[in-house]
Amino acid sequence: MAAAFLPRRRVLVIDHNEGPGRKIAISGGGRCNVTNAEVTPAYYLGDAAFIEQVFSRFDHHDLLAFLRSGGCQPVLRKGSQYFCPESARQLIDFFQKRTVHADFAYGTEIVSVKKRGERFVVDTSAGRFEAPTLLVTTGGLSYASVGASGIGFFIAERFGHTVVPPRPALVGLTLQRGEAWMKRLSGLSFLVEVSVGRRKMAGDMLFAHRGLSGPVILDASLFWNSRKLTVDFLPGIRLRRLFKNPKKSAITQIPLPKRFVHAFFEALGLPNIPYHAMDNAQKQNLSTLKSYAFAPAGTFGYAKAEATKGGVCTDEIDPSTMQSRLIPGLHFAGEVIDVTGRLGGYNFQWAFSSAVVAAKSV
Fold it and tell me: Using the 8-state DSSP alphabet, how is residue 215 labeled?
């Protein structure tokens, strides 16, 4: 994206993958969810003012117009997400046409990066390259299978930048022993609402062999940091209104998969009796269907994560240029920066927007 916005400059893109767009190709089920119909800092973990400044210079409307001008026509799916109409290959082809002026060094490993006078010196497995401007767009640690590495963090620290410790994001969460009952529900999925601090999000939760997954858990993992999560298993439903028949057992009147309801009752020691026959303590336990709080043990790790949170500290980057406040000529864009979005095209949008701001500055 940055190269596409530098048509009148000599540009070299160094990539240790053997070809272009590896991560684009596998995202969104092979159709790449390019952006979203609603893009604001509220959908990101990071400094809201910094994110807003970048989007004020190039937002999702600008991105869609840019893609459409070159014949790539993203389509709206899943309510608010924009995908390539047929295949992510359409987006890769679009970028290849827009970057014919640039040189590409594929299958090339970075050995060292330093600055001598006004020029950056990049030693690689393909030789030495020098330039007055260096743009680091190396992403995070997720998706090692398509070339993810921590090289960008290493380069940033080499030049004195602070790197917020990276962690897996948009990833499943493992469970502590107290929630082991959930593992027995592997394969079950239904709509819930999850709260993490002040953040609240709704979506499908998937019970997995290793813990919890599904879109709402992946989103929640972005904001989770060893604190408790609270799950409402019956979003939009008042619990007491369910038990209209005083003779029927509570289990039979709860509109959730019976596997889950029976496991929940067993885990909380609830009897299979009518709601009105329960004592206050039992009713209180049952009410946690609306507010089940627990602390996950950890995450499924980078191998399963769709993004990396943390990265180069935004205090040390100028959002109007994406240039380092410490080293003139050094720029950063994309996931290598301490800005991470939720599911739904937000991280591609951030990558494209920050790349354009950097390129225009150059």
Answer: H
How confident is the model over 55-112, as pLDDT tens digits? Answer: 999 999 999 999 999 999 999 998 899 999 999 999 999 999 999 999 999 999 999 9
Give the chain's largest Cα–Cα span: 84
What are the respective helix, strand and coil percentages of the chain, to the nearest 5? 35, 25, 40
Q: Distance (Å, rounded) from C-alpha 255 to C-alpha 243? A: 11
pLDDT at 179 over 90: yes
pLDDT value at position 226? 86
Helices (H), 19-84: 22-26, 48-57, 60-69
The pair of structure tokens assigned to 362 is: 């150059």
β-pair partners for 272: none
Q: What is the mean pLDDT of residues 227-234?
A: 96
205-to-28, 44, 182, 189 alpha-carbon distances in Å: 18, 20, 11, 5
pLDDT attached to residue 248: 94
- CB neighbour burial string for 111-131, b if at least 16 within 10 angstroms, e if fewer: eebebeeeebebebeeeebee
Task: Quote the percentage of the chain above a pLDDT of 70.
Answer: 100
3-state secondary structure 99-149: CCCCEEEECCCEEEEEEECCEEEEEECCEEEEECCEEECCCCCCCHHHCCC
Place of tokens 């390539």: 84
Mean pLDDT of 322-330: 98
> What 8-state DSSP symbol labels residue 32?
-
pTM over 0.70: yes
Residue 97: other Cβ atoms inside 10 A: 12
Cα separation of 86 and 30, whole Å? 9
Query: Amino acid identity, residue 201?
Result: M
> Tokens 């869609």 correspond to what residue?
64
Q: Name the residue with tokens 């593992």.
A: 183
Distance of alpha carbon 236 from alpha carbon 193, whole angstroms: 9
From 27-41, 134-148, 168-182, the region with the lowest mean pLDDT = 134-148
Q: 146 phi and psi, to 5 degrees?
A: -115, 30
**d(C-alpha 22, C-alpha 89), whole Å:** 10
As a whole number of Å, the end-to-end CA separation of the chain is 13
